[in-house]
Structures are given as structure tokens and as C-alpha cells.
Amino acid sequence: MKNAIKTAFPYTIPVMLGYLSIGIAFGLLFQNAGYNFIWAFFISLFVYAGAMQFIAVSFFSGGLGLIQIAIMTLVVNFRHIFYGLSFLERFGKMGFKKWYMAFALTDETYSLLCGIKPPENVDDKKFLLCVAFLNQSYWIAGSVIGALAGSLITFNTHGMDFAMTALFIVIFIDQWKLYHTHIPAITGVFCSVAALLAVGPGNLVIPSMVLIVLSLMLMRKTIEPKLEEKTREEDLEK
User: Fold this and answer.
1) Which of 82, 58, 86, 85 is nearest to 72 (CA)?
2) What is the DSSP string of 157-220?
3) Residue 226 · residue 180 · CB < 8 Å
4) CA of 86: how far to CAs of 40, 74, 79, 155, 222, in Å?
5) 115-173: pLDDT as tens digits
6) How far apart are the two ends of the chain, measured CA to CA in Å?
7) pLDDT given at position 131
8) Dihedral sign, CA of 75, 48, 41, 164?
């Protein structure tokens, strides 16, 4: 396991930098809403939903009911169903750990696992687990640090929720550089803009995800050969 952690850590450094920054921003906002670092720790441990945790700050402050919060959580995180489906084969070999992997599959972890493979001397299952565990650890650490800092120092938290958007932009750029084909990235942008124009920002997530999935399924025969070409080049380099 030590070898797997040592191998996984360098791959998670970009996420670490982003999650610590965004986690601190969340912790500050959560503390500002009246919840201390203990609450920040447990919500990041058991909820671990990034954007949904930022939304939850306003929910808790506004006194929304549990049913309303549950429905909104389902809507915001509905896309994770698609994430899990694409990893059924790899996670299926992990025994009971697959349940944690499904839980820990955030946008950033999903993006990272799609773009990397462990060296031949590292067990794939342990590598996947270490990447997911390290990423959640960064998020928890950032949340607790932010909440503690918020309890000791007065901060102006205006605009801090943009940190999550900034991380998504960085991941998009990284994926753009990583792959030979830009068809999936362009498709994602086009479908998101189309959904935004059709239904507005308040109902954007599910329509855009459905459009993206359908579009990628239709273009599968065009995209897969280009992705396989990249894999062959990586194997030759090894």
C-alpha cells in the first residue's frame, strides 16, 4: 500500500492544490454561517460533494427542510450516476472497497482516473483507492483549516465560492492538453451552452449531461480510435 500511495501522490498534486484552496474557502463560508470546524470535518467526511457543500451553506442558513435539501442534492449530483457506470469494470474487482470508490468519485477524481494508469509494478486497485483517498483527505483538511481560520480571523468571504469554478476550468485545460482529440471537450462546451440557452442556468445540470452523453454515444466510433491511439503511444514510450 505504501508503494501505491507513493505512486499516486504526484498525480494528485494538482487536485491537492485545488482542494486545499477550495476546501479552505468552504470552511470559511461554513464557519461564517455559524458552524464550527467539527461540523466542517463531518460534512466533508460523509457528504464530500464539493459544489453541493457550497450550496448547502445557503440551505442551512435559510432553514430549508430535509426533503428539499435531498431533492436538490439529487439534482445537483445526478451526473455521478454516469461517472460510476464508466468505472463498473475496474471498480467491480475491488470487493467492498468499490462502495467507497463510488462515494469518492468526485468530478476531479473522475477526471484524474480517466486520464492516468498506474505503472506495471503497482496494483491497479490499490492505486485507484489511494488516489480517491488522498483527494478526499485534501478536501477534509482544507475544510477544517478554513473553518478554524474563520473562527480566529475575520474574513470577507465574498466571491470565494468561485474557487470551485476555477478548479473546473483548470481540469478542462489539463484534459485538453492531455488528449489528441478535442471532440469530447468541444462537445461538452457546445452541449452546455445549448442547455443553458434552452432551459436557463437554474436547470442546466441534467439537460446538459443528457445532451453530452447522447452526443458522445453517437460519436463513439469517431472518438474511440483516437483515444486508443494515445494509449498505444503511451505503451510504446514505456
Assistant:
1) 58
2) -TTTTHHHHHHHHHHHHHHHHH-S--HHHHHHHHHHHHHHHHH-GGG-HHHHHHHHHHHHHHTH
3) yes
4) 31, 19, 12, 41, 18
5) 788 888 888 889 999 999 999 999 999 999 999 998 887 766 666 667 667 767 776 78
6) 23
7) 93
8) negative
Whole-number percent of the chain with pLDDT over 70: 84
Mean pLDDT of 207-233: 76
Angle between helices 162-178 and 107-115 in degrees, nearest 10: 10
pLDDT band at 93 (very low <50, low <70, confident <90, very high): confident
Boundaries of every domain in the chain: 1-161, 179-237
C-alpha cell at 158: 465574498
Angle 205-218/183-199 helices, nearest 10 degrees? 140
Q: How far is CA 57 from the centre of its chain?
A: 19
Considering only the C-alpha atoms of the chain, give the largest distance between any 2 of them, rounded to a whole number of Å: 57
Of 144, 138, 128, nearest to 13 by C-alpha is: 138
Q: Is 25 exposed, middle or buried (0-12, 13-18, 19+ CB in 10 A)?
A: buried
Q: Percent of the chain having pLDDT more than 90?
A: 20
Return the residue matching grid coordinates 476555477: 166
- pLDDT 10s digits, 4-27: 999 999 999 989 988 998 899 889
How far is 190 from 84, CA to CA, in rounded Å? 23
Is residue 236 very low, low, confident or very high in pLDDT (cuts 50, 70, 90)?
Answer: very low
Q: Using CA atoms, how far apart are residues 198 and 221, in angstroms rounded to an integer?
A: 28
